[in-house]
């Protein structure tokens, strides 16, 4: 006997839609269960975290392909810890009169704090704050901040954003002179 699914009337669609929404919410709740990453589970949690992980992974099996293909997930870290590598943002402008790269913004430096209030705002720092690699929005951030600086500084021919690796010590940091993720924007280039 073959199963055949047909809509008998338009009134059936709201129930089907409600069911699909409930399933999506259910998978979102399962996927959003905050579990420590494997290998970072404290000994006292292993007895219940790993079985929960197995159940979660089994329940997500029918839809696990969605996460990779559509970049959709509900997972988040309840207690995030910074990575061992830390970075300090440099935003520099190139132009007259010095024809050299001059710092406009250096994180934590009151003498070079142009747009600090905007750059350091919680809604913005997620676009540029790197962990072990830059965020997906890093390029868009550079374009946006570059355009802001070009509007205010007609003497600039280029803007450069880069991250300097730093070492954090007792209440202070030490620059390493190693720069990563350097992106330059030239005036008039889209």
Topology:
Blueprint: H1 12-31, H2 46-60, H3 64-70, E1 86-95, E2 100-106, H4 116-119, H5 122-125, H6 138-152, E3 156-168, E4 173-186
Antiparallel strand pairs: 1-2, 1-3, 3-4
User: Average pLDDT value?
Assistant: 82
Whole-number total of structural domains: 2
**H/E element sequence:** HHHEEHHHEE
Radius of gyration: 24 Å
Low-confidence region ranges: none
Class inferred from helices and paired strands: alpha+beta
Largest sheet data: 4 strands, antiparallel
Number of strands: 4
| N→C terminal distance | 61 Å
Question: Count of helical segments?
Answer: 6
Adjacency order of strands in the biggest sheet: 2-1-3-4
Strand content: 15-25%
Query: In which range does the helix fraction lie?
Result: 25-40%
- Gross morphology: elongated
Question: What's this model, at a glance?
Answer:
With 190 residues, the protein is α+β, with helices and mostly antiparallel strands. The chain contains 6 helices and 4 strands.
Give a structural overview.
By secondary structure, this protein is α+β, with helices and mostly antiparallel strands. It folds into 2 domains: 12-70; 86-186, no CATH class. The protein is 34% helix and 23% strand. The protein is built from 6 helices and 4 strands. The chain has helices at residues 12-31, 46-60, 64-70, 116-119, 122-125, 138-152, and strands spanning 86-95, 100-106, 156-168, 173-186. It has a 4-stranded antiparallel sheet with strand order 2-1-3-4. A hairpin with a 4-residue loop joins strand 3 (156-168) and strand 4. The termini are far apart. The relative contact order is 0.11. The model has no long low-confidence stretch (mean pLDDT 82).
